[in-house]
Specification:
The protein has about 150 residues and is α+β, with helices and mostly antiparallel strands. The chain has two domains: about 60 residues; about 50 residues, no CATH class. It is about 25% helix and about 20% strand. It has four helices and seven strands, in the order E-E-E-H-E-E-E-E-H-H-H. The strands form two sheets. It has a five-stranded mixed β-sheet with strand order 1-2-5-6-3. Strand 1 and strand 2 form a beta hairpin. The termini are far apart. About 10% of the residues are buried.
Length: about 150
């Protein structure tokens, strides 16, 4: 049954069982490991597999794929700015070493201070204010008065 069409799935494209797709059809992850991207082409088939219910993965024609675009300095800057936004606490305004959990909405220092931690009340756990930021980091806002 290797390479034979299993059925026609949703959207009218051929559906194959897991590990039975013809040669030259790859998923997005398989394309990425080969340094390729779909290049704007629509999927030509799909595979169907069971993982806590029926799951589908699109298959793309490897002959139509193009090389992955390289990261430019502008793209690196935008990624760095997005990561800095995820690490800046909205409550105290500090750029932290860890990501701010969206479920909590602020850094661990602000959580600790909210519960009356003795180290936070005395200022022992409060990070020192930087005199000057390194040139590759965004400007750190001053800490708000507690």
């Amino acid at each position: 049954m290797h390479g034979e069409e299993y059925e026609t799935g949703p959207g009218g494209i051929p559906t194959y069982p897991k590990r039975c797709a013809p040669e030259g059809l790859l998923t997005r992850r398989q394309l990425r490991t080969r340094g390729l991207r779909p290049n704007g082409h629509d999927p030509v088939a799909q595979i169907r597999y069971w993982r806590r219910g029926w799951q589908y993965a699109y298959l793309y024609d490897a002959s139509k794929a193009a090389p992955v675009r390289p990261m430019t300095p502008g793209r690196w800057r935008s990624v760095a700015a997005m990561l800095a936004a995820r690490m800046t606490c909205p409550q105290c305004g500090w750029l932290r070493e860890e990501f701010i959990p969206p479920s909590v909405g602020h850094c661990t220092h602000c959580t600790c201070r909210a519960y009356g931690c003795k180290a936070c009340d005395t200022g022992a756990a409060r990070p020192e204010a930087p005199d000057q930021n390194p040139p590759d980091q965004p400007t750190r806002p001053p800490m708000m008065a507690a």
